[in-house]
Design a protein that fits this description.
The mean pLDDT is 86. The protein is mainly alpha-helical. α1 (10-73) packs antiparallel against α3. It contains 3 helices and 2 strands, in the order ααββα.
C-alpha cells in the first residue's frame, strides 16, 4: 500500500517529529528487550543440555540397578506398586520483559523406603533413589524447555516488530518530515517573494534593497 503524505502544515510536521521520537524510543526498547530475552534463552539452553545429560546418566544407573534387582529378587512389579503416585506438581508463572514463563514446582518429601526392607536389597534401593532423582530433574527440564520455547516465540515477535520500525516506520516518518519541511520552506520562500512584489507595487523598500 502506498504511503499517503499528510498535508504540509506546521501541525503535521510537529506530529511527525513526535511520532519519530516515539518510534526511535520504541525501537531502542525492542532492541533492549530482544537482547535480554536472547541472553535469558541462551542460559536456559545451556541448563537444559546439562539436565538432559544428568537425566540420561541417572536413568542408565536406575535401569541397571533395577535389572540387577529383578535378577536377584525376581520381578519387582509388586514392590514398585507400593511406591505412591506423585501428586505434588504445581505450575506458576513469572514475567521476563513481559513474557510469561512457567515455574514448575515439585513438592515431594525426601525419598525414604515405602516398601518392606526385608524383601528388597541395595540394588532396588539404588533404583528407587535414581528414579526419584530423575523425577525431580524431569520436572525441572519441563520448566526449562517450555521457557526456551516461549522465549524463542517472543524473540521472533520482538525482532519482527523491531525490523518493522527500523525498515518501514522510521523511513516513512523521515520521508514525511523531509517532505513537509521542504514544502513549508518552499511556501515561506513563495510568501517572501510575494511580499516583496507587493511592497514594490506600493513603493515601499524591501529587505534586500
Amino acid at each position: 500500500m502506498e504511503h499517503t503524505q499528510p498535508s504540509p502544515t506546521k501541525g503535521n510536521l510537529m506530529a511527525a517529529k513526535n511520532s519519530m521520537k516515539l518510534a526511535v524510543n520504541g525501537y531502542d526498547l525492542m532492541d533492549r528487550k530482544h537482547n535480554i530475552l536472547v541472553r535469558e534463552m541462551m542460559g536456559l539452553i545451556d541448563r537444559a543440555n546439562a539436565l538432559r545429560d544428568k537425566i540420561d546418566t541417572t536413568y542408565r544407573r536406575a535401569y541397571e540397578a533395577l535389572q540387577h534387582a529383578n535378577v536377584t529378587l525376581g520381578i519387582c512389579e509388586s514392590l514398585a506398586k507400593s511406591i505412591p503416585v506423585e501428586t505434588g506438581l504445581s505450575v506458576s508463572v513469572r514475567s521476563v520483559m513481559g513474557v510469561e514463563l512457567p515455574t514448575v514446582r515439585l513438592d515431594t518429601p525426601e525419598p525414604k523406603p515405602c516398601y518392606d526392607l526385608g524383601s528388597t536389597n541395595s540394588a532396588f534401593d539404588e533404583a528407587y533413589l535414581c528414579f526419584h532423582q530423575v523425577k525431580l530433574m524431569t520436572a525441572e527440564l519441563a520448566e526449562v524447555e517450555n521457557c526456551v520455547y516461549r522465549l524463542a516465540v517472543a524473540i521472533k515477535k520482538t525482532q519482527s516488530r523491531a525490523n518493522a520500525l527500523k525498515n518501514i516506520i522510521l523511513p516513512e516518518l523521515e520521508q514525511t518530515i523531509s517532505s513537509i519541511s521542504g514544502a513549508l520552506e518552499e511556501k515561506e520562500r513563495e510568501e517572501f517573494s510575494r511580499l516583496k512584489v507587493i511592497k514594490r507595487a506600493k513603493g515601499q523598500p524591501t529587505a534586500d534593497t
